[in-house]
């Protein structure tokens, strides 16, 4: 970067030395973004070394424990909530390998549901519906793994709280949460 002076004479103070970074404060602030991975420390599960977070037939908050990047410190892992630092449109993303167990409805299709909630109110729902017959059980050679990827756009005001909640229609599914296979992202567009 060229060294620009306040005046035209050599003895005048260069702007870069006088103001430093403040000379460029008109740049917009960095857009909010948080990237989290699952990290589950319950080793009591008999399935996959305790690496699976179970979601049942009632709505449960999807919480992740390994915050990889959060430039505004807006994600609270104890509640699973992301507080929007600025007003704007946010991408809410979740992607995971799912282990499904006995989630078969009358039409032989499993139904897994995710909602993005804004301030505790359901905003938008996404379904994962796949044929999972025959129903697997723990340790069964027919255990079913599927990958799901959900992207929902949510308009937020500064201070709004975003979170994912999930449930299934019959028995349970599990998010593979050893830190390599599940991620959740909240990002302002």
Could you please describe the fold and organization of this structure?
It is a single chain. The protein has 189 residues and is mainly beta. It is built from one helix and 13 strands; from the N terminus they run H-E-E-E-E-E-E-E-E-E-E-E-E-E. The chain has one helix at 15-19; strands at 33-37, 52-55, 60-61, 66-70, 75-76, 81-83, 88-101, 110-118, 121-130, 144-156, 161-168, 172-176, 182-188. Strands 1, 2, 4, 7, 10, 12 and 13 form a seven-stranded antiparallel sheet that branches. Strand 5 (75-76) and strand 6 form a beta hairpin. The longest helix has 5 residues, at 15-19. 26% of the residues are buried.
Please supply descriptive tags for the structure shown above.
189 residues; six-stranded antiparallel sheet; mainly beta
Taken from the alpha-carbon principal axes, the silhouette is globular
Helix and strand pattern = HEEEEEEEEEEEEE
Number of DSSP helical runs: 1
Structural class: mainly beta
Helical percent range?
under 10%
